[in-house]
């Protein structure tokens, strides 16, 4: 049986995996001062970062249209797929999942959609697991179940220099955003039940990154885990996180990736983002 796997551009899959998995990626759109471009194709995270630091710049994001998913699903089925599993960014963070659901309803039972409940490699890991299951010849339900199971194994933690951009985009409440400015508190955030919430609070950026490592090691548990470190314009900060996590996890660390986030997440977090996604192997 041939099952095609679809995800969206917010998975931020590492470049070293290009060509290793059969995945179709549907891009979201980023709008800068009224001009819209497709993430990863027409607009870069660096462009977003520059716009966010410019005065009077307006940056927003939008989901793919349901018709974009319909077109992709029909093409994959016409090319010989027996079914499609479509794995996407949290429904509480984007309308992408809803758009995919609308398209799936139009196509019928041969398309199943998964809400990963998170973003970035928190989405990427379950999408990769689904692609691996599809490569092994599993049927539609089994590939869907694999994506769902692996989505439950990820923990997404991150630090930002300011919560202002998350507040502007409606991805975090005003009260939590105020917390980040009060008494120079530096909050560490995580994705909980699909939404961005404050996980911990420290006084300095340095302590925040140290605490980020502590929480990631805690999330890994006692078994083997994969880790993805994300950043926006702070490669040195990300490389230091990789080093600290490698030292702390030791032989329990399996795959470790370092990637810059794309334009959509950049639009909502702003420059200075440092994040860790932990994927428990079992």
UniProtKB/TrEMBL annotation:
Keyword Transmembrane: no
Gene3D superfamilies reported in the protein's UniProt record: 3.30.1180.10, 3.40.50.10170
Keyword annotations of the record: Lipid-binding
Superkingdom of the source species: Bacteria
GO molecular function: lipid binding
NCBIfam families in the record: DegV
Designated name of the protein: DegV family protein with EDD domain
């Amino acid at each position: 049986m041939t099952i095609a796997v679809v995800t969206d551009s917010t998975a931020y899959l590492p470049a070293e995996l290009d060509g290793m998995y059969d995945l179709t990626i549907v891009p979201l759109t980023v709008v800068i001062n009224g001009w819209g471009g497709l993430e990863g194709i027409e607009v870069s995270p660096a462009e977003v970062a520059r716009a966010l630091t410019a005065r009077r710049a307006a940056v927003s994001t939008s989901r793919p249209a349901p018709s974009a998913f319909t077109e992709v699903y029909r093409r994959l089925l016409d090319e010989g797929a027996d079914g499609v599993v479509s794995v996407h960014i949290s429904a509480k963070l984007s309308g992408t999942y809803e758009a995919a659901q609308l398209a799936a309803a139009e196509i019928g039972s041969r398309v199943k959609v998964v809400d990963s409940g998170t973003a970035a490699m928190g989405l990427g890991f379950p999408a990769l697991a689904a692609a691996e299951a599809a490569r092994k010849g599993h049927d539609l339900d089994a590939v869907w179940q694999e994506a769902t199971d692996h989505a439950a194994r990820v923990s997404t933690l991150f630090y930002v220099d300011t919560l202002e951009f998350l507040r502007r985009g409606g991805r975090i409440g005003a009260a939590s955003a105020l917390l980040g400015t009060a008494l120079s508190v530096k909050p560490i955030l995580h994705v909980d039940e699909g939404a961005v919430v404050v996980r911990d609070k420290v006084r300095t950026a340095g302590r925040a990154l140290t605490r980020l490592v502590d929480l990631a090691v805690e999330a890994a548990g006692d078994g083997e885990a994969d880790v993805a470190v994300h950043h926006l314009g702070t490669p040195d900060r990300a490389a230091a996180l990789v080093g600290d996590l490698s030292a702390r996890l030791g032989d329990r660390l399996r795959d470790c990736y370092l990637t810059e986030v794309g334009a959509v997440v950049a639009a909502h977090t702003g420059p200075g983002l440092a994040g860790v996604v932990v994927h428990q192997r079992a």
